[in-house]
Amino acid sequence: MKISDKLKEILVNAYSDNNNDSISLGYNYSGRYMFGDTCIGFMINGISAFSAIAEITKEIESYEDKLVSTEFNIMLKSARIDDMGKGQIIYFPHYTI
Prior knowledge:
This protein is an alpha+beta fold.
């Protein structure tokens, strides 16, 4: 399922490439039991997954768009977290950009 253009814009602007040292957006993560399917995720370094989720939520809510906030809250219900050696990833199976 593709995320909305507005949510994509917010996430890409805030978390793509070197915009944030602790959180970066990934577009093609394939997690456990996904059997090759890919989804979006956030690679996190130096902070906890819960802190990262709080920061991402705060960023989204700063736009004061209830539809986008609701969309992200629904996505959070499917969130999964995996360790990646030096960091973690929070990923959302079935959600793509």
